[in-house]
Design brief:
The chain is α/β, with parallel strands linked by helices. The protein has two domains: about 210 residues, Aspartate Aminotransferase, domain 2 (3-Layer(aba) Sandwich); about 100 residues, Aspartate Aminotransferase, domain 1, CATH 3.90.1150.10. Helix content is about 40%, strand content about 15%. It has a seven-stranded mixed β-sheet, with helices on both faces. A three-stranded antiparallel β-sheet has the order 10-12-11, covered by helices on one side. Helix 10 packs across helix 11. About 50% of the residues are buried. The model has no long low-confidence stretch (mean pLDDT about 95).
């Protein structure tokens, strides 16, 4: 079922024990050897985390930065790759801290053209908008169970292409993480069932059910539901004089970054929503702290009723928060 949701035939597709960040660490730790040059897109919290993890794996990171709320442009990646022998290019598909969705098929093509692997963070995009691992030729992709897959937190679904698996297999150095070494995990998840670590079995049951529900609904139907509710929220926000601040044309459906008007106390509004309506929305992070609210419409939470409820709640809370 994970293969179906990732839209891949990759044999090495399974849930890593740990949250989404463990999936990030799994992909980078297996592919990076000390001294490797890697190109990392940075346009929010999770791009910065990618850089940090890559550096801890011993990589020499070439950071490709875009302002928070904007996409990483393919041209920027092309420039960064020029004259280098990068081992991989890693970008965040859906930046949850800013609500922007970076188009990645061209970035993937550029990576391969330059002999690099392509690594994708699909933690917030998987199950909420199209993630086409084989069509986009993604070599290593990771996600998390508690975003649009709608499960408890605790597993990181991952998928490695044969090309990535080959790179991990012919390393000169051991993978620095014993726990996340795909070469060891392969015989655990494979036919031999060689004991490696104790899998969090209850989480695997939860993921099994979460995936079953996704496939029952249908991927395309699910994507459309996220798109429609995003558009409904956007229209309702406009009526309140509010707007989504992430780059036009690349606004993410499952996570909506809403500009806070200057005259409004943003923390007061969030507290009121929680206290009076039992609804929790996110605050801005990093340079967007105090400037945006982040409204999640993910998985089962992404409904017309919830869009109506948050719009009503925001209207009242803002009236009181001036
Ligand atoms: C949530 C998130 C992560 C990290 O996942 P955890 O489950 O919190 O470890 C990584 N990348 C993105 C884009 C995320 O939204």
């Amino acid at each position: 079922m994970l293969r179906q949701v990732f839209m891949t035939k990759n044999e090495m597709t399974f849930p890593v024990s740990g949250t989404g960040s463990a999936g990030m660490e799994f992909c980078l730790a297996n592919l990076i050897e000390p001294g490797d040059e890697v190109v990392v897109g940075m346009n929010g919290v999770f791009g910065s985390r990618l850089k940090d993890v890559a550096e801890r794996c011993g990589a020499r990171v070439v950071a490709v930065e875009a302002p928070w709320g904007r996409i990483i442009e393919a041209d920027q990646i092309a420039k960064a790759l020029r004259g280098r022998r990068a081992k991989l290019v890693a970008v965040v598909h859906a930046e949850t801290s800013t609500g922007v969705l970076t188009p990645v098929d061209e970035i993937s093509r550029l990576a391969h053209e330059n002999g690099a692997l392509f690594v994708l963070d699909a933690v917030t995009s998987l199950g909420g908008c199209p993630v086409k691992v084989d069509e986009w030729e993604v070599d290593a992709v990771y996600s998390g169970t508690q975003k649009c897959l709608n499960c408890p937190p605790g597993l990181a679904p991952v998928s490695l292409s044969p090309r990535a698996l080959e790179a991990a297999g012919k390393r000169k150095t051991k993978v620095q993480s014993w726990y996340l070494d795909v070469n060891l995990l392969a015989s655990y998840w494979g036919q031999e069932r060689v004991y490696h670590h104790t899998a969090p079995i209850t989480m695997n049951y939860a993921l099994h059910e979460g995936l079953r529900l996704i496939l029952e609904e249908g991927l395309e139907v699910r994507w459309r539901r996220h798109e429609q509710n995003h558009l409904a929220l956007k229209a309702g926000l406009a009526e309140l004089g509010l707007e989504i601040t992430s780059q036009a044309g690349h606004q993410l459906w499952p996570l909506n970054a809403v500009g806070v008007p200057d005259s409004v106390d943003e923390a007061f509004v969030r507290k009121r929503l929680l206290r009076d309506f039992g609804m929790e929305i996110g605050a801005g992070l990093g340079p967007l702290k105090g400037k945006i609210w982040r409204i999640g419409l993910m998985g089962e939470n992404c409904t017309e009723e919830n869009v109506d409820a948050i719009l009503k709640g925001l209207k009242l809370a803002i009236k009181n928060g001036h």
